[in-house]
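hey m, so remember when u said the C-alpha cells were messed up on ur end? i reran from scratch. heres the input so u can diff it against urs
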Amino acid sequence: MKDQNLSAIANEFGSPVYVYDAEKIMFQHERLTNAFSEIAKLRINYAAKALSNISILKLMNKMGSGLDTVSIQEVKLGLKAGFDPSKIIYTPNGVSLEEIEEVTKLGAQINIDNLSILEQFGARHPKVPVCIRINPHVMAGGNTNISVGHIDSKFGISIHQIPHLLRIVENTGMNINGIHMHTGSDILDIEVFLYASEILFDTAKHFKDLEFLDFGSGFKVPYKEGDIETNIEELGEKLSKKFKSFCEEYGRELTLAFEPGKFLVSEAGQFVAKVNVIKQTTSTVFAGIDSGFNHLIRPMLYGSRHEIRNISHPEGKQRFYSVVGYICETDTFATNRRISEIKEGDFLAFSNAGAYCFTMASNYNSRYRPAEVLWYNEKAHLIREREDFEDLLRHQVEMNFDKVEA
C-alpha cells in the first residue's frame, strides 16, 4: 500500500479516511502462528475492540482466528461475521448478570472476572463452562490506562482470593474449563510476561478439568522507524517450552490461547487527513487538518505517537510542524514534528491507525465519522461509508414545543 494509493483513496472517498492493509493483517497473524508452531493446540482470538468493522471480522474468520469480545454487541458482530459461537470468548468487566446470561444463550465461551458474579452465575448455571480471569498483580503496559494486571486494577480476580474462588466453585459445582489473564498493553519485556505465565500455571493447578489457558496479549508494535517491539519469536520459543512442560505435568494437552488486537491491526492502518491551514505564530508553525481527536483520540488520551508523513510531497524539505485538529479545545497530534514541507491541501498520513482509532471515534462537535477502506488484493474496497447529516439525527427525537402543554 503505497503513498500514491493512499492519496488516490483520499481523493476517491474523501478525507479524512481510514485505510487498512489486509496483507499486513494476514502477515501479522501468520507471524504469531509461526512463533508458536510447536504448540499442537493454538487459538488466536482477535480482540474485536481494536477494530470491529464487520469486514475486518470476516477477514479474521477467513484466516481461522477466534474472537475475543468484551460486550454482547461484539459477540453479535462476531456471529454476524460468521464466527462459530465456540470460537468466541466473552470477557466483560462490570456488566450485569443479565447480559452474561444473554451471551450464554448465544453459545460463546464465558469468562468471569469477579467473585460476586461468579457465585451468582454458578448458582444459576452450574453446568455452563466458565473461564476465570485472574489478576496476577503484575504491573505491565506502556501507560497506566492500559496496565490492567496490577494490584489496584478493576480487572480480574486477585490471586490472593484463590481460596474464596475455590470455595465458590466447590459450593456451586461449576464447570471451570479455562483460566485467563491479561497484564496490559505495549508489553516490551517478555520476562515480565513469562513471570506472569508462571502465576497462571500455578493457578491452573487448582482446577482438574481445564481445556485451555488464555495468556491475553498486549504485545508492543513499533510506532516509528527503529522503534523497539515485543520479540514475538523469542516469546514463542520460551513460552512454548514452559507451556508444554506444564501440560505434561497437568496430564493432558491444553489449548494455548492469545487475544491480540493491536498486534494484528495497528500497523495495517493509515489515517489520511487533508491540511486545511498553515498557521504561523511567534514560536510555532501549525498544520491544521480536517480532523481532530473526535477521529483519532489516542495522542490526547494516551500520549501515543503516530508517525506523520506528507504523502503529497514526501521528498520535500524537512521542516518542523505542530499538527493540530479542528476541535474547539487543545487538539494536538504532534508537537514540533519533523515532516516534509507542508502546504495547504496536502494529505498527511498517520501510521499505526488500525487499532483503537476508529473504534474510539465520536461525533464530538457534531462532526461526521470518517469512511473506512480495506486495501485487499491491490484494490480499495469501501467497508464503511462516511457519515452524513442524517446520521447525526437518526436516533434523535425532535420535540414540537408549540404543542407541548405547560
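this time it looks ok to me. The first strand starts at residue 17 and ends at 21. if urs says something different then somethings off w ur setup not the seq
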